[in-house]
Structure formats: structure tokens, C-alpha cells
Amino acid sequence: MTAPEQLLSEFIRHASVSTDPGAQVGMEGARAWVAGQLRDLGFAVEEIATPLHPLLLAERRTRPEHPHLLLYGHYDVQPADPYELWTTPPFEAAVRHGRIYGRGAADNKGPMVVHLSALREVLHTNPDLPLNLTYLVEGEEEIGSPSFRGFLEQYRERLAEAEVVLLSDTASPSTEQLVITTALRGLLYVGVKVTGPRTDLHSGMHGGAVRNPIQALATLLASLHTENGAVNVPGFYDEVTPPADWEREELTHVGRSAEDYARFLGVDAFFPPPGYSPEEAIRFAPTLEFNGIGGGFQGEGVKTVIPSEARAKITCRLVADQDPFVLEERVCQALRDRCPPGVTLELETGSRAYPYSVIPPDRPNTPADQPEAVARAFHAVENAVTDTFGRRPLYLREGGSVPLVADLQKIAGLDTILLGLFTPEDNLHAPDESFSLRTLERGIPAFAEIFRRIAGSTD
Predict the structure, then answer these.
(1) Predicted local confidence at residue 250, as pLDDT
(2) Which residues does residue 44 pair with via DSSP β-bridges, in sequence order?
(3) Domains of the chain and any CATH numbers
(4) Pairing state of beta strands 164-167 and 68-74?
(5) Cα separations (Å) of 17 from 85, 115, 457?
(6) Which residues pair with 315 in a beta bridge?
(7) Average pLDDT of the chain?
(8) Cβ–Cβ under 8 Å, residues 121 and 388
(9) pLDDT tens-digit series, residues 385-416
């Protein structure tokens, strides 16, 4: 193995599953490994306690007048279950066919090794690099970063000394075409419970006399979309800002046909809302999705009952300028207004996240007051990627949510440049997760050049 491969192999070995109370040894090991790497690079490292898993706040200060960059990563990973679907053990890194396999290889340990290795290269050749660096590494990203907002509130002034954030926890379409993500969707959750009779009923003795909670729930959920796929909630689209012309044009360079996309997903047709192509819908449009539904008998065979209750889980992905608290109330009000008689409705809310967006420089809609340091960082990233990968990065919105990015903007006033290093082939959160060795090899000189350019140094 090369030195970066060896580093990633060591990092993967720590089973840092943040959602598993039995994984404390792995969490502590991963955190200590990152802290050791950062100290070797000359960072002063603090371990900051949170209600759940500590995070690391590492700093390498030069002079106040030098540019200041905040890097972000996370040391926790998703659970590896089901283990039987892995070709090799998930916490024993294995190299096959130009990829390194293991849980967390792509999300987010591979990208972090790219950052760390690039820093090692730059600081070895230029120990006096005129760049202030803060590296923030958390251990709760895979469970929604519940402690992160509190940390930001407490350390806001210190973090706000940075000028811009650089993060690699987003996707690119391939190892040849990197993407700078310009927007992330926000999120809200609503749990729905519909209750009818006080207990399950014999469907022969009582069927036809009472409203079946499953039927009531199905009717209620069906009312939340129109026949053409639009979300049927009053005011749902009121704050949606259409994408700029340059954003739609940028999307045409992704190079994925609708047929290829359908084949990849294993579907025979798409169902985007009116006015959007499938590629546009997953980036530009808000959504309301049903993520789970249940009620009545779920076992093998037949049990002829009218269930006492039925439940569903709803999440919405929100685009720029939509407020999760406002949309939550609109969705909940629609559910209350449409609940059929004969059943009662209970709603559970939570998991709110704001959307995030940033406009790169030199666009028709770039804010006139965009800080010069942010524009300089965008140019540094674009030029370094172009030089290293042989083609410029695309600027695209992404359909997923990274709540902490919006929190960094809202609380610390920091814009984030999101340069994606993992791809759909990496199997994030699934068995046989992997990270491309080609991305590892080319990402390191790219990030080294990014650090040099942001610092204003070409040494």
C-alpha cells in the first residue's frame, strides 16, 4: 500500500459507529487517530465534550493577517449491518480493482485522508505556509449532528475568525468529474398516527360499521400530492426560487441520460413534479416523501382484523429560502384539515434542518457583497481541480441534506465550499462501501494546490 492507502486502512480499522452504544472503543480509537495525525502536522488539538460524542477542534495559527480556512470532517460512520453482504470484513480495509473497501472508506474517512495527506505535503515543502487553519472533526454526523448546534453557539466567535469553510462530504458524478455543491436541501420530519377503535376488531363482526384506520391513513396521505406529482399542501411552493439559467445549463454537463439514470435505479419511468426533469427535480425542487407506513397484522398469513391504529413517517426536503418551521406548520395543518371523521390524528415533529445555498463568484446572481475571501477560495478550488483532474468542476445543487452547513452559515456567518470526493459507485451506507484509489491519488495534489492558492503561495 502507498502511504495514503495505509493511513486510510488504519482509519477504517476503528469501528466508529456513532449510533451504537457498544462502539465506544471504535469511537475513541478513531478520534485518537485523527487527533494524532493533526498533532503530527503541528496543530494544537482540543477534545471538546458534548452530550454524546466529543469533537475535535484543531488549530494551526500563523499571523492574523493571513487567510483563515476552516476544514470540516467527521470520524463517525454508519453501522455495517448486514455483515453477510460484505465481501470482506467492513472494518478490515481491503484493496480490490482500484478501490479500498471498508465502512467509512468514502464517508468520510477517505476524504479526510485526502485533506490530511495534502496538508502533510504542503507543510513539508513550506512549513511557513501563510495560512491559518482550523480543522473541526465531529463524531455525530451520521446521527444528524445533535450536539453540533450547541457547540456552534458556544464557539461561534472563535469559529467566525475563519473566512470560509472547505468540506468534502458531498458527491460527484464520477472520479473524472468533480462537483462543487452550491446548495443542499433542508429537512423536516412529521410522524402521523391515526387511531380508530380502542382495540383491534374482528373484521367480520365490525367491518363496514367503523372507519378502518389504514383506509383513513391511506386517504389522508394520498391527499398530499396531486395526480401529476406536485405536493398538494397550501403554500408549499410559496418561497421556492427557480434555478438561475446558468444552473440549468451546468446540469446539462453531468453526462447522465435519463435512460442511464433509470437503469441505475432499476425503474422503468420517472415521476417528477411539473416543470422539472428527473435530474432537476432531485436538485431544484422541494419534496414530500413517505418513508414508512404500518398498521394491522404484518406477519405471515392472514389475520382478519380492523386495526386500532395506523402510522406513517413523512419527510420533506426543502430548497433555498424555505423555512422548515414554516413548512412543518403548513404540512401539519393540511393533515389536520383533511383527517377523516371517525378517527383521531396525532402528529409528531422533529429533525428540522435549514437548506443551504451559496452562489459562486462571477455569476449573474452572485451577491454584490460577497466577501473577497470567499470569491478567492472558490477560484482557488476551481483552478486547482481543473489543473489536477484535467477538467473544471461543475457547480451543482445537491438533493441531500448536511444540516451543519446551514448552521455554520446562520450562526457563524460562514459560507462553505463543498467539493465532493465520493461517487455513486462508492456504495455509501451500504455493504461493500469503497473509495477510489484514483480519487485518493489525484485528490491529494488537488487539495495541496487548493491550500497553496488560498494562502496566496505557489511554493
Answers:
(1) 94
(2) 59
(3) 3-184+356-455 (3.40.630.10), 186-240+286-353 (3.30.70.360)
(4) parallel
(5) 18, 22, 39
(6) 189, 289
(7) 95
(8) no
(9) 999 999 999 999 999 888 899 999 999 999 99
